[in-house]
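A common beginner's mistake is to predict each chain separately and then try to dock the pieces by hand. The better habit, illustrated here, is to supply every component at once so that their relative placement is modeled jointly.
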Amino acid sequence: MSFEYAPAPESRSVVDIASSYGLFIGGEFVEASGGGTFKTVNPATEEVLAEISEAGADDVDRAVRAARAAYEDVWGPMSGRDRAKYLFRIARLVQERSRELAVLETLDNGKPIRESRDVDIPLVAAHFFYHAGWADKLGHAGYGADPRPLGVAAQVIPWNFPLLMLAWKIAPALACGNTVVLKPAETTPLTALAFADICRQADLPPGVVNIITGAGETGRLLVEHPGVDKVAFTGSTEVGKAIMRQVAGSGKRLTLELGGKAANIVFEDAPLDQAIEGVVNGIFFNQGHVCCAGSRLLLQESIAEEAVDALKRRLGTLRLGDPLDKNTDIGAINSAAQLARIDELVSSGEDEGADRWSAPCTLPERGWWFAPTVFTGVTQAHRIAREEIFGPVLSVLTFRTPDEAVEKANNTPYGLSAGVWTEKGSRILWMAERLRAGIVWANTFNRFDPASPFGGYKESGFGREGGIQGLGAYLAVDDAHDVGAGR
Amino acid sequence: MTDRVEVRKTYKLFVGGAFPRSESGRTYEVVAADGTFLANAAKGSRKDGRDAVLAARKGFGAWSAATAYNRGQVLYRVAEIMEGRSAQFASDVMAAEGLDTEAAARQVEAAIDRWVWYAGWTDKLAQVLGSANQVAGPYFNFSVPEPTGVVVAVAPQDSSLLGLVSVIAPIVATGSTVIVIASTARPLPAITLTEALATSDVPGGVINVLTGDPAEIMPWLASHADVNALDLTGVTDADLAVTLEREAAGTVKRVRGPQADHDWYATPSLSRLRSFVETKTVWHPMGT
Amino acid sequence: MTTPPLELSLPDASPGSLRRFLHGLPGVDEVGANARVASLGTRSIKNDAKAWAIDLAIRMVDLTTLEGMDTRGKVRAMCAKALRPDPTDATVPSVAAVCVYGDLVATAREVVGDRIHVAAVATAFPSGRSSLDVKLMDTRDAVAAGADEIDMVIDRGAFLSGDLALVHDEIVAVKEACGTAHLKVILETGELRTLDNVRRASWLAMLAGADFIKTSTGKVTPAATPPVTLVMLEAVRDFERATGRRIGVKAAGGIRTSKDAIKYLVLVNETVGDEWLTPDLFRFGASTLLNDLLLQRQRMASGHYSGPDYVTID
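With all components supplied together, the output reads:
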């Protein structure tokens, strides 16, 4: 008899989702002036979760003014010590409400509760704790004795790690003394709106954090608003480029965290079982909706067959299904549009002659799902080896020598992350030096920490989030004229 | 007694360690601050820009892989060579900017000192901009600054030597390579610098100098996919700067904006060094 | 899923060949192994799955007493409990085996007959510090007294000093002395220290003829840990692919609660697959675990928490 795990669903009762939400401006929820709304749905069931306000030009203006007023009157003049205490409060509140936030994230995003509970939300709290400590120590960060904030930051974030990306944006901005207007992705606004409530609970002065909801147009209005001093964006390279064009000549400081097509390189002397785990974690974590996902597996030819067998065997044990089930490994694809994009790229892989293998699992009838998929026989020229799929799809390529591995890994317009698996220490450092990527995970993958700077080379963007280097993105560094100053 | 007929020099570009003429065959007149004719300089074209990118990319591999100590020595050697030719630099600067002897000498000295300043930075930057990161787990985690790659710079239009050196030295100090467009109206100090560079230890392709009109060459370089960053310090036309920034978005280049009326004599901050480095963070587990 | 056999050329028993083979095995990254175990540790096993797992765990227990103060009386009582763990509930299955010192094998066999296995620790357990002759006599003696399973210890000193052939040959000799009795080879992973050593020792024991590989004597801390067990399970998984032979794994020492036991079952299930979820291929070496399994079983049957006075102390 086989070991069938009974369903172990996390309770939904810990969350209380309102039927509709306004915009969080100046410390309170207000109606959008245009009255436009859109719906956010649970991607695992297609159930409508809530009606969300769509911010128009007037609302964006209102939010930026609120942020400006808060910057000038309260947050800018406040001592770092007091700013720190507000951030510590927020960190604590996130911890206290962690179960609720995890369930909310899973409902709105489709990611497994195991990940929102064990990865996303703990990192959110950690991010606020880390940056809280910086608020009164900025003079020690290498940006001058008394570095000044920039002013009002416009922040636009994606749907893959909704609350975590919010934390990556808001925590350093506030620690450095800026105020923010943040726009969450239109498919995942709920945790950002819950965060607005946390700001109220923390008695954060009104206007320091403003959350406006909407789609691409709202984001464009926010980025282009003349009252904004700083733009920070995480999302697709395509939109990042558009934003770069929009802010050109405006004098706004800009940081971009964009796409990736990371190589995960496994040498024949790798710790194979951990490498396979790392490969799985690298591409199937969060359904592959990860900009730094290890979507290209580069296997040394001598172990390629063995490794692919081991990988397939391991993928056979992944549990796809209800994201709220504590035993689910692979949740739902965030939206129909994203599923369509994955489908399209996977078809292109088949058309171009790569061999497709998908894990044998039953997909639920409702909602948007994609089985973990591996392509072998992939070459550098295939679209699936070049374009970011942003889904649970791995392309397997092979190499013969370290030079060839580096060459193939770097042969992409992106440069966000890379993985290296080998037991040979000097080879790790040799590879790490040559890989043109902002994060190199050696014998591990997809590790994140607020103290560890994150960000890319080349078309993966510029600027860093996290660590001492990340502070530069929110400080008026003397003599700084570069749009991405503070890398 | 008649004056001797002087031997006039044909001014060329400096690309990949060689002195090619502009592929276009064009030249333009360079005049002194008082309006007297000084020379004909090569008028660089988009194809010269393209060739320079090839040279800079080729130079990047070895230059970025050289030890920081080695790069520091190479940059210091440039200062040594300039010191030996300071009279020629002073006369170039004097003619170009209409300065008196003392002011020209002061600029040359400051330019030489700037090389020395940046030469000393090469092997300290990782200690200042890098970090060991205390992550919450059994991982060794560190961050280091690495060179961005191929950088295209527009040198200041006013400060013909000090401004130029202040732009290119920080770019190459970190291991990037540079294509710089010299001050359009005052290119001769830059050309003299290329002659110093050619006899220095700076490898071919690391510093490439074009003369001509940024408005003509830069749009091609701003959209060139193998350029990693732009330094628009010497771009005086605001509309051109915006156009270039927009073009740069095509491949997400790093852009440092125009910087007019800067006091080039002031001790630099780290800003220029920061502009053209990328932070790389490496994780490794710690276990037995 | 059928998987093609692992391409491995197995070594012969010469010292050089063994060394080259064992040191050619892929390394184990400790942090990665710990992370994998931690991730599997979050599996939530509820309701029917939990009830099934508890009964399976009971059937996998080698109920053990290995004390200087052991007596025939103590062993008889333990054997009675092994046969019928919960006197109030006949649906509770017997455990897999009882595990005792060699001189008490006959006593144990008297009580359990052939209803469950009798395992004896042998080979100068727990330190293994005696001559090979003594170890072999110890083994033959236990088998003659009725043991059908022998839990031997490897010579950790020899292993750590690099004398892999000595360790190998000793196992081969003990296996021969076992006759038809099953041989469990105790690696004493707490003394091997690194997971690389655990993987090499696992392969060494399997190559020498072990039927089971076992984590620990229970006399050394740490005893069984999930990462060590993970590495051993990976080794038996790969050994099966290379040779077609299925080797069992016994996690012994330090597993005291039902929750722990279920985590091990999850580890087995997701590492080697459910073919190993049988007492023939996975065992728990434990003395106190059984009572916690019984308490949990009572709770699940009755719907309320039970207490220590409702399970027997033998």
